[in-house]
Design a protein that fits this description.
By secondary structure, the protein is mainly alpha-helical. Helix content is about 70%, strand content about 5%. It is built from 12 helices and 2 strands, in the order ααααααααααβαβα. The chain has a two-stranded antiparallel ribbon with strand order 1-2.
Length: about 230
């Protein structure tokens, strides 16, 4: 039994998704609904310096997403290798979950529980989907996939492993992807000290970009399956 093949494949898909999200995400669109009230001068300058905002804000957020996703998948593999239900791993899974990290502080316990149950259901499907790969002796992803599945099963696996935005989109109103922007951190220059910091809510643009990226990576992964299985 080996986890290596499953982890290799998952990291590949996560890296592809993060890169596709970076290409899809529009800083200008994220700023579009930002008002020009307090901090409006900073927002106006950010609109003219989207490269700086992407470098200082978007890239670190994507790096954090990748780290959380991979660490969470390691916990999913713990579930696969055990005889315990997914609920036994709840605390560790949620510690690394992007949706939980983005829950609005106004979300009540009942709504939070609904979100958590949706997340756990997705992670259980993910774990059950990759279990045949974990049971294989191969340490590389595609050899393990070819040994564990036929072509149609491998295509179905792609639809299980890659998508992750379902809970995010279903519980949009419970989420708040926000970042506090300090002028010195993003723009620099001698006059930025006179500008106030602003809070940027980029929830809608993040969900839009991640969903488009997800579908693109699913398409690419299906093409990989077709190539590998002939």
């Amino acid at each position: 039994m080996t986890r290596a093949a499953a982890l290799e494949g998952f990291e590949t898909f996560v890296d592809r998704t993060a890169e596709a999200t970076r290409r899809e995400f529009s800083v200008a669109r994220a700023l579009r609904g930002t008002g020009l009230g307090p901090g409006g001068v900073l927002v106006d300058r950010l609109r003219r310096n989207t490269d700086a905002l992407e470098r200082r804000v978007l890239e670190p957020e994507l790096a954090a997403y990748r780290e959380r996703a991979v660490e969470q998948f390691r916990v999913v593999l713990d579930y696969v290798e055990s005889d315990d239900p997914i609920e036994a791993f709840e605390a560790d899974l949620l510690e690394h979950d992007s949706a939980v990290a983005a829950l609005s502080p106004t979300v009540g316990p009942d709504e939070r529980r609904t979100v958590v149950e949706d997340i756990l259901a997705r992670l259980q499907r993910l774990g059950d989907g990759v279990a045949p790969i974990v049971e294989r002796p191969e340490t590389e992803f595609w050899p393990a996939v070819r040994a564990a599945f036929d072509r149609e099963q491998a295509l179905s696996l792609v639809e299980t492993v890659v998508p992750f935005t379902g809970p995010l989109r279903r519980h949009r109103e419970a989420l708040a992807f926000e970042v506090r922007i300090n002028p010195d951190d993003v723009l620099g220059g001698p006059l930025t000290g006179t500008l106030p910091s602003v809070s940027l809510d980029y929830t809608d643009e993040a969900l839009r970009a991640m969903h488009h990226a997800e579908r693109r990576v699913v398409h690419e992964a299906r093409a990989d399956v077709t190539e590998r299985f002939g």
